[in-house]
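During the reporting period, our protein records have gained a structure token line. A sample record is set out beneath this paragraph:
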Amino acid sequence: MKKWLRRIRGALLMGITWAVLWAPVGLLIGMVVDPTGAMDEPWIAVGTFPGFLGGVMFSIVFGIAARRRKLGELSIKRVAGWGIVAGLVIGSLPFLLGDQGPNVERVWLLPLVVVSSITVLSAASAAGTLALARRAERRELPDANVDVSDIGLTDAEKRELLGGRR
């Protein structure tokens, strides 16, 4: 049970991280699609909600597809591809489930900008997530069996770690 709770927590944290990073993009999309401010849309939500859903969906796909593999075995292209699929699905959902409203002058512009932006962001976020995970893996602390002298501590730091003993 703890394993599932840890996975759910990880997926939610991935979603929150992506949502925070995508929030400013929603504002930029609003500037492109609605430069006059005629549409009554909360543009920050256009970045935040898909970012959260994209992070959660990517986390789920990543957990399923990369279950038996190490980070070094995964290519950034493949992980970005998973991000592209997640972005296409999430970007298309609002247009498949709802309607665009009567205020849209160019019916094709909103879906094009939103879906393409979410897809590109999702692919970039997925690749960035893998790159950060690889970097964190390289920076891990050494095993407990490693001799203290092997990690580059000074003599004073070694004595302090050993409680004043030599």
